[in-house]
Design brief:
The complex is a heterodimer of chains A (140) and B (426).
Chain A lengths: L12 E2 L22 E2 H5 L6 E6 L14 E5 L9 E6 L2 E10 L2 E5 L16 E11 L5
Antiparallel strand pairs in A: 1-2, 3-4, 4-8, 5-6, 5-8, 6-7
Chain B lengths: L4 E6 L2 H9 L8 E4 L6 E4 L1 H5 L8 H11 L2 E3 L3 H15 L6 E5 L2 E5 L8 H16 L3 E6 L2 H13 L6 E3 L3 H7 L13 H9 L5 H6 L2 H19 L16 E12 L2 H21 L2 E12 L9 E12 L2 H15 L6 E9 L2 E2 L13 H18 L38 E2 L3
Parallel strand pairs in B: 2-4, 7-8
Antiparallel strand pairs in B: 1-6, 1-7, 2-3, 5-6, 9-12, 10-11, 10-12, 10-13
Helix pairs in contact in B: 4-5, 11-12
Classes of the chains: A mainly beta (140), B alpha+beta (426).
Chain lengths: 140, 426
């Protein structure tokens, strides 16, 4: 099956159905016309800073991010306690939950069945961006 | 209000794009190769430190790259173009007037910003671009575009400036201009450098001190302009259109070798199709094309390098006219018995189509051709390049010996859903 690429910043239209109108009769709905719903605007608040990625594995299922989900990642946001983040630890990129406790920030797995996450004291940690949405497609 | 320009550009731009998507590349030497993996066109600081020169042919540095663990990429213009677009979207939040000068450089109009706040704004711009897109940049500020470009060079080569150089004030200019060589002045080519050196001119400050009249005699009007610009008097404004190109070329090395006339004509027709697109995009036309092809100096066997120029009765940018002329050129100089490695089309003295002389005899039907070309370009814009093309350029589905090779291209991370980065567990 052909999957067309998502171009960040271009609207994706979902049709908003209007009744078919016979010529000659003004439609009572004309005064109430809205723009079609544009999901891109919901998913992508800041296009130049947003990147789309695919998730592999179950390390973030407790925060609702599943194997095979698409995620949107916004680099312009400052992570808050409880945010899912894409993070580089010693050159490895992964998803973690961002925690701030008593002014100290740390990272955790988003899966209770995993052991506590400990990158070690000398780890080089760099937050790539904050996960803002996931997209799951049920029929491929 | 005095004019002020900023020139912002990405540091080792193509390499920096690759680094955004692969954190492992952070401190490693990285290079990106030109089309067909011919030579290095972008190098990180680590790669430069190993002595890899701009434009170094791949076959001369292959061993070094292997030995030193240099990460080598084929060019991924789809990715770099998207990152460039993102960066320019960020610039729009800082300036209302922007000129995209090339894939990695843009001029911003800084005139509305108070002189004392320009450097601070440039720092804010840099950090926003870096945070949002991941690409590191440098910013040069000056009262003219030439000085902004110069300031950018200084910022690039002087780490203690932390990425921003502001040449707004006379003091800053008298401090920095004596330290900049001629090769770093925008618009001074190799030939002019030699002439200027003969005058005893060796730095940007020396050039600024010349009398404009003298410069006009030896360096033409352009030279005179450069002097005014270096002294802080703008002669080059922000262009809403790119400067008129004087020449245009489409050349490719073949992935394999081409030995048949049919295949060569097909390759050249494809080049002509691309050339037509380029010319129409800039509203330019040409009254001749030069066709050339040659064998590889690295191959054994007989070598041959030939070219021929085909003239048109009048200037045109019609793909079909270009394809006809180019194919005719190939037939004129074709010889069997050689394994050709590279072919191309060149044209110089481009003219704006509207301003070109009409032919008395052999005039083309511009009306009709214009409409056809518009339709062709519109289809290819909408559906992707190469969807509609002259049959002479060969059927795209065929495996072609002359298609560009991209052996080490990274995924198109930002424009193809099936190529976005996969985040696993670490």
């Amino acid at each position: 099956m052909q999957i067309s690429p998502v171009v960040v910043g271009l609207p994706i239209y979902l049709p908003v159905y209007l009744k078919a109108v016979r010529a000659g009769f003004p439609s009572p709905a004309d005064d109430y016309l809205d723009q079609p719903i544009d999901l891109t605007r919901t998913l992508i608040q800041n296009a130049p800073a947003t990147f789309i990625m695919t998730v592999a594995g179950d390390s973030a299922i407790d925060v609702g991010i599943f194997d095979g989900s698409l995620i949107t990642v916004d680099r312009s946001l400052v992570p808050k306690d409880g945010d899912a983040v894409v993070v580089d630890v010693n050159g490895e990129r992964s998803i973690k939950v961002f925690r701030i406790v008593g002014g100290r920030s740390s990272l955790a797995f988003g899966n209770r069945r995993y052991p506590d996450y400990d990158p070690g004291p000398d780890a080089e940690i760099d937050v790539f961006g904050v996960v803002t949405n996931t997209v799951r497609r049920f029929r491929r | 209000m005095t004019r002020s320009f900023a020139l912002i550009d990405g540091n080792s731009f193509y390499c920096s794009c690759e680094r955004v998507f692969d954190p492992k590349l952070r401190r490693r030497p990285v290079i990106v190769l030109s089309n067909n993996d011919g030579c290095a066109v972008a190098r990180t600081a680590e790669a430069k430190a190993l002595g890899i020169q701009m434009g170094a042919p791949m076959f001369t540095i292959r061993d070094l790259c292997r030995r030193e663990g240099v990460v080598v990429f084929s060019s991924n213009y789809t990715l770099y173009g998207d990152m460039s677009r993102r960066m320019n979207t960020v610039y729009e939040r800082f300036a209302s007037d922007i000129e995209v000068y090339s894939i990695d450089e843009s001029f911003l109009d800084m005139s509305p910003v108070a002189p004392g706040q320009r450097e601070e704004m440039a720092r804010d711009l840099r950090s926003t671009v870096s945070t949002w897109t991941g690409v590191p940049t440098c910013v040069g500020i000056g009262p003219t575009k030439t000085l902004a470009k110069l300031a950018n060079k200084i910022a690039k080569s002087t780490p203690q400036l932390r990425g921003v150089c502001d040449l707004t004030s006379d003091e800053a200019r008298s401090e920095w201009l004596p330290l900049v060589g001629l090769e770093d002045v925008w618009g001074i080519g190799r030939a002019s450098q030699a002439k200027l050196a003969a005058f005893g001119c060796h730095t940007a400050a020396d050039v600024a001190a010349l009398t404009p009249k003298l410069a006009r005699k030896s360096l033409t009007v352009v030279g005179e302009r450069i002097i005014h610009e270096l002294r802080g008097t703008p002669c080059i404004d922000l262009e809403s259109v790119a400067p008129t190109r004087k020449g245009c070329a489409v050349t490719r090395s073949f992935a394999g070798r081409v030995e048949s006339l049919d295949m060569m004509q097909e390759a050249i027709a494809a080049h002509a199709t691309r050339l037509g697109e380029k010319l129409r995009h800039h509203g330019l036309a040409t009254d001749h094309v030069t066709v050339f092809f040659h064998t590889s100096p690295h191959d054994r066997g007989p070598s041959r390098s030939v070219s021929t120029t085909v003239d048109f009765p009048e200037a045109s940018n019609d793909t079909l006219a270009l394809v006809r002329a180019a194919k005719w050129g190939v037939r004129r100089i074709w010889k069997y018995g050689y394994r050709y490695a590279k072919a191309g089309l060149m044209t110089v003295d481009l003219v704006p189509l509207e301003a070109s002389q009409r032919a008395l005899i052999g005039a083309l039907d511009r009306e009709k051709s214009g409409r056809l070309m518009e339709a062709l370009d519109a289809c290819n814009r909408k559906l992707g390049r190469g969807v509609v093309f002259p049959a002479a350029a060969g059927i795209a589905r065929q495996k072609k010996a002359w298609v560009t090779k991209f052996e080490m291209r990274s995924p198109r991370y930002t424009t193809r859903l099936e190529e976005v980065p996969v985040i696993g567990r670490a």
